[in-house]
Amino acid sequence: MILICYDGSPDSKTAIKLAGDLLGDHPAAVLTVWEPFMEVMARSPSGFGMAPGMVDVGEIDSANEKSAHARAEEGVKLAGEAGLNAQPRCRSQATTVADAILAEANAVGADAIVCGSRGLTGIKSILLGSVSHAVIQHADRPVIVVPSAEVAAARAHRHH
After folding, report:
1. Which end of the chain is less packed: N or C, by CB atoms within 10 Å?
2. What is the pTM for the complete model shown?
């Protein structure tokens, strides 16, 4: 079983294509991680000023989860086009996206994890962190990190 991380971004689409090219004979799970509203608000200074009852947290979380399921289904469709037999998976983020990915890898018994790389550099990578980096640092199984076609082309251009 191969766990493919999918968030709809160009790098995650490229990761699905590469997984199909390299690992097309393996069963796969396409994972989309969604973030509960209270996790978002816990990191937001403006969230602390919300009055109770202003927001229906359950409704927001339900919409976020529904959106994540739709993204996972989109990823499964792309995986099928790439020659993979994949199933959709969604997981809520309890702590970090990387932790959710690693927990899902354990849950499905993944032999490897495939994820995209945003290609952030400098201050953006420091401020935003790197999901793929955290997955690599904490994984107990192989991880394939795939840059989007645009990021790969820009990097290739820099090396010439």
Report:
1. C
2. 0.83
